[in-house]
Design goal:
Blueprint: H1 2-15, H2 28-35, H3 39-51, E1 55-58, E2 62-65, H4 70-75, H5 77-81, H6 86-108, H7 113-127, H8 136-150, H9 153-166, H10 177-196, H11 200-219
Antiparallel strand pairs: 1-2
Helix pairs in contact: 1-3, 6-8, 6-9, 6-11, 7-8, 7-10, 8-9, 10-11
Amino acid sequence: MAMDEALGAIRDYIADGKVKPGDKLPSEGRLCEMLGMSRSPVREALRMLEALNVVDIRHGSGVYVKSLGSEELIASLSLVMGLMPLSSLLDMYDLRLIVESSLTERAAARITDDQIDELLRIQMSIEAAVHPDGTSKLDDEFHDLIARVADSPSSRALLGVMRSRSSNYRLYRTERAIEVFRVNNAGHREIINALRRRDPVLAKGAMAAHIDSTRGWLAALKPEAEIKESDSGR
């Protein structure tokens, strides 16, 4: 498609360093001349890049390149991942398991007593919830704190996007909600205990088991269970 060609060409123009963050792209007319294309595919490509948080279209001024930091670009994946069916999300869980368990392994050597206390506080709040369906934000805080301790901004951003997509599947509104809640809490406790012991191998294994358990719950869902609300257990 012409739009795909235009998108690839403009992407390469930016990636090759011809413009830097904050710079203005050539005008739409000039881009058409450079690419040998009509305005329609070029305009569509620019809109797509704006949706992906790569450029900022300022009407009456022009198109400007936004920050190209890894965190910002990874965060833009939320648009694409939001369209993933359950089967594709489950495939992504292989990546989540590898990344998050490795970050937890690293966190075991870095975490402070205060941070362990914070994890425990979050977990106690989760367990004290009147209903597990309202613990999504706390669950996100739990996982994000570990990623923050590991000090890998790109991986942390990627995991945030993946957790956000998983939240479309409301495990705590299924018939097995109580069982899911119990197993998830036990998994969190295992992770905390491993981190408290500063045992990287144990911490990595505990997180891997926890993520694999969540993948199992998701795999048991039927595709029609996918809904758009954002709060769920993970």
